[in-house]
Design brief:
Helices cover about 40% and strands about 20% of the residues. The strands form 4 sheets. The chain has an 8-stranded mixed β-sheet with strand order 5-6-4-1-7-10-9-11, with helices on both faces. The protein has a 5-stranded parallel β-sheet with strand order 14-13-15-16-17, sandwiched between helices. It is built from 14 helices and 17 strands. The chain has about 400 residues and is an alpha/beta fold. Helix 11 packs parallel to helix 12. The radius of gyration is 25 Å and the shape is elongated.
């Protein structure tokens, strides 16, 4: 489907009480996973590729959980800006930001679930469009199904229209049951329905197949030009006899150590990883976690002649919520000196993607598997690089 979709998920979910005390309503778990992914699965299954999340309350948690891509859908975000816009305000903002005046547009509530053929609803709208309908709500027997089909022009032009229930309505051509998680009763009803959709555990085979299919999607969705850009930087690095410093945290630190070995042994690049645990723990204890890589790089006399390679799932974040803050500070240090920064990171790449010379962002296919997919993709990409004819000098033994 080439029609853009907005999911209105900026509400606080106050009717759910303690469930939404620390998380937004869209992240409430239903049948084992955050509700937003049930909605995205519906859209992905029907071929939608362009979704905007209109967020507000605790928006950073939604962005962290969902990322910028999911099962072939490009995810964009629009923020209330600190002041709740309401349903119509959020839709107006989405239209003004993303759409041409005549472009069709579908909006759904962030707490609703309607397992139906969206294409049929859109086609019904198109059959009515050109008559009295330029925007409509999909209803059945007077019940609002939480789906709005409209054109950008009609919505932007409704300056006095502040409530969704003032839009014209049209009956669905084939009614389906609409469910919502806005209150405890609705949540229980949705839970009962979606629990039936969860594939029962039948040994490891289902998971193995899904994980490998996701892995194939990661590879096919990776931007090859970004890998080529890193390759070019490494070729230039060796030509100028610079050094390669590789950093990572957790599993990515183990990858950094392995990668440093490969670049040294196969490519004759003077490569180093911060994998001395005595130094790492001493610097963490004495200088603080955020300075562990920075101080190591300073002692190593990092210069503009060198390169810094970041392997990370989140890419580091220096501000709240601070994660892998030592990576963010290391990138800052490299930027200050003028050292080229290369990255292989996941999600939106965090601080590294924002400030790197060139960076590969491993696509998010399944948000539950961001970490394993990113870390095996790091290994795949560096093995690609050390095997590339432009870099590889020494043969492997086996």
């Amino acid at each position: 489907m080439n029609i853009p979709v907005a999911i209105l998920c900026g509400g606080k979910g106050t009717r759910l009480g303690e469930l939404t005390k620390d998380i937004p309503k869209s992240l409430v778990k239903v049948a084992g996973k955050p509700f937003i992914f049930w909605q995205l699965d519906l859209l992905a299954d029907q071929g939608f590729t362009d979704v905007t999340l209109c967020v507000g309350h605790l928006d950073n948690l939604i962005k962290e959980a969902v990322g910028f891509s999911y099962r072939g859908i490009t995810i964009k975000y629009l923020h209330d800006g600190g002041e709740p816009l309401g349903t119509m305000g959020a839709m107006r903002q989405a239209v003004a930001y993303h759409l041409k005046p005549s472009q069709e547009f579908m909006a759904i509530y962030g707490d609703s679930y309607l397992d139906t053929d969206y294409a049929q609803i859109i086609q019904h709208f198109r059959s009515l469009n050109g008559t009295k309908y330029k925007a409509l709500r999909a209803t059945y027997d007077g019940v609002d199904y939480g789906i709005t089909i409209l054109t950008g022009w009609s919505l932007v032009g409704m300056e006095g229209l502040m409530e969704l229930n003032q839009l014209p309505t049209a009956e669905l051509p084939r009614p389906e049951k609409w469910l919502q998680i806005g209150d405890p009763e609705g949540l229980a009803e949705v839970e009962a329905l979606l629990a039936k959709k969860v594939v029962p555990w039948e040994g490891a085979s289902n998971f193995i197949e899904d994980f490998l299919k996701e892995s194939i999607a990661v590879i096919s969705s990776t931007v090859w030009e970004d890998i080529e850009a890193i390759l070019s930087e490494l070729v230039q690095l060796r030509e100028r006899k610079g050094r390669l410093f590789i950093i990572g945290v957790g599993g990515s630190m183990a990858n950094a150590s392995h990668a440093a070995c490969d670049f040294r042994k196969l490519c004759d690049i003077d490569a180093y990883a911060m994998d001395n645990m005595a130094e790492m723990t001493a610097r963490t204890n004495d200088d603080g976690w955020r300075n562990t890589f920075t101080q190591w790089l300073r002692v190593s006399r990092l210069s503009a002649n060198d390169c810094l390679l970041v392997l990370s799932v989140g890419g580091g974040q220096s501000q709240a919520p601070a994660t892998s803050v030592n990576i963010a500070y290391a990138v800052q240090e490299a930027n200050r000196i003028g050292t080229p920064v290369l990255g292989i990171v996941g999600r939106d790449g965090g601080y590294t993607a924002q400030h790197a010379t060139c960076c590969v962002i491993v696509p998010t296919i399944n948000s539950c598997h961001v970490t394993p997919h990113t870390e095996w993709a790091q290994a795949l990409i560096w093995h690609l690089l050390v095997s590339h004819p432009s870099l590889k000098i020494n043969p492997t033994k086996w």
